[in-house]
Every structure is written in C-alpha cells, then in structure tokens.
Design brief:
The protein is mainly alpha-helical. The chain has 5 domains: 96 residues, no CATH class; 84 residues, no CATH class; 30 residues; 78 residues, no CATH class; 163 residues, no CATH class. The chain contains 23 helices and 4 strands. The chain is elongated.
C-alpha cells in the first residue's frame, strides 16, 4: 500500500474520531483495502498524536481490539500472535510514560489555557461564585492534573502540597480561609487522580501499586480478624482480672480528685450546694459556676455510666442555659457565644440567598419575609441569623430533623431543639431535649445553637451522622474551635463560599 494512502488514512482518523464512532470508520479501511496488520501499525503511529491523554490512549486500544474482531474476514485475517504483540507494545509504551517519576527540583505551575489565565489575572469572581465556582476550578484542576500525570500517576503528599501551595501563593484570591490555605485544592486534585486512574486496568505499573495497597488492606483486615479472635480468647481472663481493673480505676479516680483539691466529701458538699441554689427563683450564677468547676472531674466520670436523667438530677445546674454556655467556654477557654454570633452575622444573608437560589427551605424563607414586615429594621439582622440557623443544614443537604423539629417531639437520643409554634415567632417555645429528657428552655435560635454545641462537648456526644457536616462547620468556622481534627472537604468548600 502506498505512503500517500497511509498519510490520508492517518489524517482521516484524526478527523473522524472527533465526530464519529469507530464502527463508522470501518468502511474507510475496507475501501482502501487496509488489512488488520496495517491498521495496527497505523494506530501505533498516530496514537500518541491523536490522544495526548493516557486514559484516552488506553480507551483507543480497547476499542481497536473490539473493532478488529468485528471487521470482515478480508481485513481481520491477521496472525493472532502478531496482533497480540503489537497491542502489548502499545500498553508497554503507555506504561513507560506512567512509570516516569522524575519530578522537577523547582516546581513551576503549568501554562493555563488563555481563557483560564485571563480570569486568573483578573482575579475573577467566577472562581468563588455559586454558579461558576465548580466549572472554573475544575478547569484549573484539569490543567494541574495534565502536568503532574506527565511525571507520575501516584503523586506523594509532598508533591500535592507543592503544587497546591504554588497555586495559592501565586493567586492569593484562591486561598482557603483556614489552615494552610490549600487543603480543599489538595483534596480535589487527589480525587482527580483517583478518578483518572480507575479505568486504567491494563497498565502494569498501576496494577502493581493497586495490588500492593490491596495486600496491605487485606493484611489489615486479617490482623483485625486475628485481633477479634484474640479478644474472644482472653475474655475469661479479663473477667478474672476485673477486680484488679476496678481497683486501679478507683486509685486513678482518687489521684485525680487529689490533683483538683477535692475528695468525695467535698464534692458531696458542692453537689448539695448546687441543688439548693438551683431551687431558688433566681440562682446565683457565679456560685453555680464555681460548683461546676470543682465537680468537673467527678461529673465527667459520672456521665459515662449514668443516663441523662440521672445526670441532670445530680447536677441540676446543667438545666440552666447560662451555666451550660459558661461551662462550655471554660472547657475550651474561648468566648464561644460571641464567636458564633459574630460569624453567624457575617454569613446569615448569604445562607438565606443561597437557599433561595437552590429553592430549599421555602417555608422558612417565606416566614422570614413575613416576620420582617412586622418588625423594625433593627430586628431584621437577628431574624436573618435565626433563619440561617434553620437553613444551614439544607446547604449541606443534611436532615434538619437531626438538629431541630417543629411541632414534632424528637425520637432521637441525640440533643435536638424542639420548636413548639412557628420557628421565627418570639412567643414560640424552644426546648433542648436529649434522650427524651428536657434539658432546658432557650430564648432564641442562636442561643439554642450555642447550647446544643455546649451539650455535645460537655456530655462528650458524637455528632449525629445526618448532621455531621453542619455541626463541623459550626464548630470550626462559627465557634472557631481549632482542634486538630480533619475537616471534611464539603465543609471547607462551603466555608470558603460563605465567608468569601
């Protein structure tokens, strides 16, 4: 076959593959009497030019193999061994590229497409807006991925950090508001690599890494199984040693009491003093706060083995919202109530606007609009903050029932707000309930949010699964509690959007 026909075929493949399926391309090979061997050689020549991305090269090879089996006998009488060898060569070529791991000593950001670069230079708001954020950030991630994958398909944490750090250093307006400033970019880029690697099942180097991690995972499962067996085998011995453990626990408890300057007798006095004071119409908050501080160690241990009802009976000061907040702030050594109010004021209107745009929380938004008509302008800010408390779970696509219920008594053991009446009406009854027990009444929704967070910390309660992102957002970005725990990417993205 002449060189001119081959050249024409390569150009035609490039054109046809952009608009047509492989099956529609078969007649071209039949018309030019191109046999299977020539077809394979042609694809070897043009594969890297037509498909610069490796995942597309792999897809092309697979489709080529299926095409060869479906072509008429005239074009598919190729020696089977020859076809296999060439196909294996294609995979080997791609594997060689994937295995390349020479990372530059001084990393530089890639050249972004003109449209993206223009928006970056202009510090366009599209990167942060609710409508264009996902689109334009995805374009940046795609460019970074294309560059990084030319070096390695399994970047290390340091390489991810260097790339993301370089990005937010050069374009400061892309920085996250928390941490190192690029955690959300790191997570998105890491997920991009996982997604792009998943279809590459024919690449030996990727399969090697997968099998290595698979073995490690299996070993972990095996170790877990072995540990379970060991645990079962030593159950009897643990039972025999129970008296020893209890004795150690009592010694440790006595040690902690001595460190706090309190013993069983003095703690009993403080508990009784607390009960007497709580029976008064207007209890002394300072006195109760002192009793709470002196009984903190004993109370923490007591909560582990007693119900909410028993705990509230022994420590009635926990039924007073002001005491809950003061105890909460004492534990974290921060002005939590002030932080929540200040930060909620910053994001409240944006929460409302975004819910309106998504068409969620329609009833609450309508009630807010109606309430503003009957209140003076000075009260509108407070109403917006109260509405934002109710709408916040909807932004995270979580169930509000795990945070509050309106005119419906809760059935969950977790702390939850019970609203009797209309949510934004001052006359409505707001109660905090836990394990079916009424903990306290609160005056408004912002105080309710603060008290709910206080109860989670004081009683050491894990966040409900259906409310985890919302409460994590409150903890990290409204309370400003900087505990060294991982923040979900969804929470970081929402914080970046709301505080922008």
């Amino acid at each position: 076959m002449s060189t001119e026909v081959i050249q024409w075929t390569i150009q035609d493949v490039a054109n046809w593959l952009t608009a047509n399926s492989f099956q529609e391309f078969i007649p071209i090979f039949q018309e030019n009497e191109i046999d299977g061997d020539t077809f394979v050689n042609l694809t070897e020549t043009m594969i890297s030019k037509i498909f610069p991305k490796m995942k597309d090269q792999v897809k092309f090879i697979r489709l080529r193999q299926s095409l060869k089996t479906e072509m008429p006998s005239k074009t598919t009488h190729t020696n089977h061994e020859t076809s296999f060898g060439i196909s294996h060569g294609s995979i080997a070529t791609i594997s060689q590229n994937i295995a390349q791991t020479v990372w530059p000593a001084y990393y530089q950001l890639p050249k972004f497409p003109l449209a993206i670069q223009k928006k970056l230079d202009e510090e366009s708001s599209d990167f942060c807006s609710s409508t264009g954020r996902s689109k334009w950030r995805s374009k940046i991630i795609q460019t970074l991925f294309d560059q990084m994958s030319s070096y390695t398909w399994y970047p290390t944490s340091e390489q991810y950090n260097r790339v993301c750090s370089a990005l937010v250093t050069k374009y400061q307006f892309l920085r996250d508001r928390t941490g190192k400033g690029y955690e959300s970019w790191h997570e998105i880029l890491k997920n991009k690599f996982k997604k792009e690697r998943s279809p590459l099942v024919d690449i030996e180097e990727i399969n090697k890494v997968r099998s290595r991690f698979g073995k490690a995972k299996n070993q972990m499962i095996s170790q877990s199984t072995q540990q379970t067996c060991i645990t079962k085998n030593v159950t009897n011995k643990e039972t025999e040693d129970l008296s020893v453990v209890q004795d150690m626990h009592q010694k440790r408890q006595r040690s902690e009491e001595s460190e706090s300057g309190e013993d069983a007798h003095s703690i009993g006095i403080h508990v009784e003093k607390m009960r007497t004071e709580c029976m008064k119409r207007t209890p002394n908050i300072r006195l109760l706060q002192d009793c709470m501080a002196r009984t903190r160690n004993e109370r923490t241990d007591y909560m582990k083995y007693h119900s909410t009802k028993e705990t509230l009976s022994r420590y009635p000061a926990l039924k007073i919202p002001a005491i809950l907040v003061l105890e909460f702030e004492s534990i974290l050594d921060a002005n939590i109530e002030k932080n929540i109010l200040n930060n909620l004021a910053l994001v409240a209107q944006k929460v409302i606007d975004e819910c309106h745009r998504r068409e969620v929380g329609v009833d609450i938004c309508a009630e807010l609009a109606e309430a503003k008509k009957t209140h003076i302008d000075l009260a509108h800010k407070g109403l917006s903050m109260a509405a934002a408390v109710l709408l916040l779970p909807l932004l995270f696509k979580e169930s509000p029932r795990s945070l509050y219920l309106i005119n419906e008594e809760p059935r969950t053991p977790n702390p939850v707000l019970y609203i009797k009446g209309r949510a934004l009406v001052e006359e409505s009854l707001l109660e905090i309930l836990m394990e079916g027990e009424k903990v306290c009444e609160v005056d408004d929704l912002t105080m309710a949010l603060t008290v709910l967070m206080a109860i989670h910390f004081i009683f050491n309660i894990e966040y409900a699964a259906k409310m985890k992102n919302t409460l994590k957002f409150v903890e990290k970005f409204l309370m400003c509690h900087n505990a060294e725990t991982k923040i979900p990417p969804t929470v970081i993205k929402m914080a970046n959007f709301l505080f922008d």
